[in-house]
Amino acid sequence: MKKNFYLRSAIFVILLMHSVVSIFSGDVNNFGRLYLDTIGFSPFGLYLAWAVKLTHLFSVFLIWSDRWVKPVSVCNMVILILGIYWVHWQNGWYVVGGGTNGIEFNVLLICCFLQLIFTDYPSLQQEKRS
């Protein structure tokens, strides 16, 4: 069984749903044009939004297959930290309950990625010995 199987499974589902649903619903385009462009990223808001979603999408398969787990985790953590700063901070801590659209979910995902970063992977150990 893979290390962090349940953690990987949760990240797999979260990132897959977060990317695929917004791609097919068109929300990624709206986020790029209607939000990122208006807060100062114009004319690159749409491209930035797509870069984020594609990073999430490719991360799903790379993390699941034990490939480039640490760089992928760092990339996603950067995205989540910037998401906290640009999108969620003004809404407080809670995603639901005590508020809406807050930072708690991003903080949890950052901790999940930190766990992946600080886990030793057998495939990396074998490569180091060679």
TrEMBL record:
Keywords: Membrane, Transmembrane, Transmembrane helix
Parts of the chain that traverse the membrane: 5-24, 44-64, 71-87, 107-124
Protein name: DoxX family protein
